[in-house]
Amino acid sequence: MRPLTFLLAAAASVAALTLNDICTVSYAQAALPAAGFYNGITIASSSLVTSIGANYSVSDNYFFSDAVINYCNISFAHTHNGRDDTVNVAYWVPEPSKFSSRYLATGAGGLSINSGADTVSGGVSIGAASGLRSVRWKDGCVVSRTDLCKLHFNLDTVIGTPYYYAASPESSYYIQVKRQSSSATLTQNRTVSAKGVEVAKTIMDGLHDLKGRRVYFSHQPSATFTDAETEYNSATGEWELSVRGLGAEFITRYIELLNTSTLANLDGVTYDTLRGWMYDLWQTYDDSFQTTWPDLTSSQDNSAKLIHIPENSDFSMPTASFVRYWESVFSIMFPGPIIQWKHRESPGLLPAH
């Protein structure tokens, strides 16, 4: 929240102030905006609490260098006027002497709200205040150059390759704070079939509607085919579609507006249905969930910096979609010939502008 950064900017200019001086309830409450400052939101200043974290270790973080930090955790709640809700927020702020007048915002990851201390601690390590925001989880790559793999690897060459998976019971796991589950599987000792390769090719080619028009990009090679996951039905003895996870829940909660995370089946669903769902979501949530607004002029005018980091093998957000968004932003903010960004896999190579 912007007033907190103003508080720290002032604190940083006064050498006598320490973390102990600013990390008090009264000091933080004084920095909160007056009632009515944010339209439609009421901040519960009485809910504000502060706590100091000392010698916190930032290590093995994908985005930040190793560091040891001291910080103040400022937490409070706010409500949306006219709604019976409570939203809890937390901000980690660095020591006044190390504050660099910056705020770090991160995002986004499915329906996850935040990734806990992983990103806010990194913000403090670079002298920035940071709040708990949506972040994207990482998926490891087993292929060093997925761009070359996509161009040159012939999937037909794996037809007939043997594979083996031992039987496993049904299990539960968590993506951020969202509980997911995987179905029980039987022992599988088979070879890759031509039909299986056809499914893989269709996925990697990206979503097209029934007229053959491209709807969306697909993932890079080595990303898991989560959308094609099946589960064994012991009653019928057949492998069937697995309609689970965030994708199914998004349809029921945000398109059908039902209070359930369960989508019964995909009966009657075609590629055109998927295109329609995506278009409906775009129009319905353009002013709230949409994260690909291309005109970032206001951020640029306020000296904000956006670091855009594509994941090579992300199975939820295709790497090509990052490239498309970058091109969209560039065409809106810098009209004229577009400098083409060619996706490369080498570590450290990011689009420069």
Chain-wise SSE layout:
Blueprint: H1 2-12, H2 19-22, H3 25-31, E1 41-58, E2 67-80, E3 87-94, E4 102-104, H4 117-125, E5 128-131, H5 146-152, E6 162-165, E7 171-175, E8 178-182, E9 188-191, H6 194-205, E10 230-233, E11 238-241, H7 245-255, H8 271-284, H9 297-301, H10 319-333
Parallel strand pairs: 4-5
Antiparallel strand pairs: 1-2, 2-3, 3-5, 6-9, 7-8, 10-11
Query: Largest beta sheet, briefly?
Result: 5 strands, mixed
User: Beta fraction of the residues?
Assistant: 15-25%
Order of helices and strands: HHHEEEEHEHEEEEHEEHHHH
Percent helix range: 25-40%
Uncertain regions: pLDDT < 50 for 5+ in a row? 133-141, 173-179, 342-353
Q: Write down the Rg.
A: 24 Å
User: How many discrete domains?
Assistant: 2
Mean pLDDT score, rounded? 78
Q: Top keywords for this entry?
A:
353 residues; Carboxylic ester hydrolase; two-stranded antiparallel sheet; carboxylic ester hydrolase activity; disordered C terminus; alpha+beta; serine esterase; 11 strands; signal
